[in-house]
Amino acid sequence: MNTETHSTRQHILDVGYQLIVEKGFSNVGLSQLLSHAGVPKGSFYHYFKSKEQFGEALIEDYFSHYAARLDGLFSDPSLSGFDKLMTYWRKWIEINDGLCGSQRCLVVKLSAEVSDLSETMRQSLLNGASNVIAMLEDCVKQGIRDGSIQVSDANSTANQLYHMWIGASLMSKLNQSTEPMNQALETTERLLKGQHPF
């Protein structure tokens, strides 16, 4: 894929991401997407066979960038496993701030909507989330090794935390407040320190 082709495809994905996070996948029509992107219909079908395939590509692109940012944080040798995870969750609150606007909470926005709509998009979301959980698990294991995290099962802890934060993000969206995520942060710290979470 040459630079111009990649740039046009990425531009369509970037514009689509903005629209879908704001309006939802079903509420964004192809004509609206093309109008905002400033590209002809033929250009869209050059890169994507259908709106559903575009949705898959959008999810994969989102998680690719997400994983790169997460890797940047988790590879910082100056931080303990505990500090890396707590930094990650604090950034989650900053980015999601209860409003779910641009550059925010695609998983929360799309999971319920597309799970019954598209099996391939559901699978793309699940694969992306599973990869994030695996990265969290690796970080928990590092924290266990360096003594900053006191849990016995890294896999269970990573799954529990991610699931809790997805739920907290959804409740923050409903409340238009970060309070559910602030509560999740307190629970996360207690859980990682081996204290009773509630």
Automatic annotation (TrEMBL):
Residues 29-48 bind DNA. Keywords: DNA-binding, Transcription, Transcription regulation. The keyword Transmembrane helix does not apply. Signal peptide: none annotated. Residues 6-66 form the HTH tetR-type domain. The keyword NADP does not apply. It comes from the Bacteria. This is TetR/AcrR family transcriptional regulator.
